[in-house]
Amino acid sequence: xxxxxxxxxxxxxxxxxxxxxxxxxxxxxxxxxxxxxxxxxxxxxxxxxxxxxxxxxxxxxxxxxxxxxxxxxxxxxxxxxxxxxxxxxxxxxxxxxxxxxxxxxxxxxxxxxxxxxxxxxxxxxxxxxxxxxxxxxxxxxxxxxxxxxxxxxxxxxxxxxxxxxxxxxxxxxxxxxxxxxxxxxxxxxxxxxxxxxxxxxxxxxxxxxxxxxxxxxxxxxxxxxxxxxxxxxxxxxxxxxxxxxxxxxxxxxxxxxxxxxxxxxxxxxxxxxxxxxxxxxxxxxxxxxxxxxxxxxxxxxxxxxxxxxxxxxxxxxxxxxxxxxxxxxxxxxxxxxxxxxxxxxxxxxxxxxxxxxxxxxxxxxxxxxxxxxxxxxxxxxxxxxxxxxxxxxxxxxxxxxxxxxxxxx
Length: 409
Description:
The chain is α/β, with parallel strands linked by helices. It has 18 helices and 14 strands. The chain has helices at 31-42, 63-70, 95-98, 121-133, 139-147, 150-156, 164-171, 177-183, 199-204, 206-214, 235-244, 258-264, 271-283, 303-315, 330-343, 348-354, 363-379, 396-401, and strands at 3-5, 8-10, 47-50, 53-56, 74-78, 81-85, 103-105, 108-109, 157-160, 187-190, 221-226, 246-252, 288-295, 321-325. The chain has a 6-stranded parallel β-sheet with strand order 7-10-11-12-13-14. A 4-stranded mixed β-sheet has the order 5-6-9-8. Helix 14 links the parallel strand 13 and strand 14 (321-325). Helix 7 (164-171) runs parallel beside helix 10. Residues 1-62, 64-69 and 385-409 have low confidence and may be disordered.
């Protein structure tokens, strides 16, 4: 490193060997010019201009070092799952980006819960491809990109946006365009693509730190979607948000059957743990309900099982139950249909036929499911149509046509 001392520029003092009768270093008259060049070099200017000439800047520590520094670091390993640090440039996605009527935040990319029906695998593949294009993959991530099926890479390579809270804080500075839009009633949904309380959160606490940022901004509308009882860890900061903003918590639960849940959602918390979490959130005075999403045709749509689920969560204090049928976009289809062939082979042909021409189940199925949940919610004192999720509203004629549950594919 250069040093300036006694009008000379040379090596640091502890590296010099003074020699009697000889002056070392550079004339002090050149000091300002050299320091200027040096500072501009360290500041990272792509070119250094000297007079009218331009010289290419060489990597300060060599190309190999610079290449290694760009790569996403492994910040933790948990059995067969690797966690990578992935600095975020932005974390608050607007409605134009989400394609929905809300803003979204996802603290992680990828999800260790490994739900067979998950629709969000496409986002993970996009991040992997971008890392490859930008030469940001180390050996382990590069091998996963080349050899691991995309659906499995989604579960085994998790990207942690460790700086997301700081980026969000800057984004929501008072008076910014995004902050003003949110104050006008537009909602923030946390966990639209990956679970914000997946196992990574226990260590990295990115979601909690994001909530702490939101707790400093009154007048927001915040929604959280998760399968994990870990959310109860943050009841303190959730309560702070609830006092100054509109907060709702959606616990995802598609079956009460433990063995079936383990097959469909192999690393997710048990159904019992989720119901207990719901009860704790309600005891804390927080608005919390259940997303029975997706309902899987032929697997989780038995009417008696669905009624048992609605009854149980109503007893735990749920403020609503929402439901919709499985939707199979292309990325989810590549994982889910082979899963059905392996675990539920008797349903394989029916699924392929049902979803052959689109990503949704048939109109009759979705209509029957919607009507059935309306009846269940009324029976157990829960809000009905305002919280039941589906793509299309039914006309009165369609609603009166039949009260029969149409659960055949």
